[in-house]
Amino acid sequence: MKNSKFIFIMGCISFTALNGCTPSEKNAEHSSSSKKASEQQIEQQFKLWKAQQDPRLLADYYQFMSQYLKHPPSLMELTTTRNYMPEHCYSKRFAIPPKAYWKNVVSSLQLVEKLNRNGYFKTYTISAIYRAPELNHCVGGAGKSKHLNNYAVDFHILSPKETIEIDREMLVKKMCLFWKVEGKNYKMGLGVYGNNRYHIDTQGYRTWGKDHKSKSSPCLKSE
């Protein structure tokens, strides 16, 4: 019996040694690889879309946004919705908002910059700003979504790492504290979606969670 147990243990060790990582590590590696492939696919789609647009309009939009921000997002971040969506909606994920909407998102982007500058998070990437009506319909978005008028910013905080739950929880507490203390002054809408994903707009003091309802927001839960 002891010999069998020893053989079993050694077999497990050999399996791990030969494969270089545990099953859980393999899953994490696969997830990271899939995410990278998805990002590369979106980048390629963006390049194809960009090549079909008026270069002067693209330049004007980027220059307009840049004058209000110390660290303006890339043109891809400004024009691309990278949130999850069905595959048949992919072609609708790129859009330049109407000129009348350009300035709408400035205060929201400035607020994200302020949080970054004040150390709430070090690095982030924007996953959605303007959402064209065609895309909103395709993904079943809310009819009064702030993204439709270019008021909102969805972003993904890249640190702390998503795998460290205690760091994620600490970040949520910091974001909620800012919303409670300063949110009214900014008319700040804060969506907390989990996994370091957030929504910010400046169209009314409110908060919500994963199901887009206020009751699910961690900011409203009693300490």
Textual characterization of the structure:
With 223 residues, the protein is of the alpha+beta class. It has a single domain (56-220), classed as Muramoyl-pentapeptide Carboxypeptidase, domain 2 (2-Layer Sandwich), CATH 3.30.1380. It contains 7 helices and 5 strands; from the N terminus they run αααααβαβαβββ. The longest helix is centred in the first third of the chain and has 29 residues, at 23-51. It is globular. The termini are far apart. Keywords: Carboxypeptidase, Hydrolase, Protease. It holds the Pfam family Peptidase_M15_3. InterPro entries: Peptidase_M15A_C, Zn_M74/Hedgehog-like. Residues 105-161 form the Peptidase M15A C-terminal domain.
Outline of the structure:
The chain has 223 residues and is an alpha+beta fold. The protein has one domain (56-220): Muramoyl-pentapeptide Carboxypeptidase, domain 2.
* Unreliable segments of 5+ consecutive residues: 1-20
| CATH architectural designation | 2-Layer Sandwich
| C-alpha termini separation | 53 Å
Largest sheet, spatial ordering of strands: 1-2-4-3-5
Order of helices and strands: HHHHHEHEHEEE
What value does the Rg take, in angstroms?
21 Å
What top-tier CATH class fits best? Alpha Beta
Stated plainly, the CATH topology is called: Muramoyl-pentapeptide Carboxypeptidase, domain 2
Task: List how many beta strands DSSP finds.
Answer: 5
| Bulk shape | globular
Mean pLDDT: 87
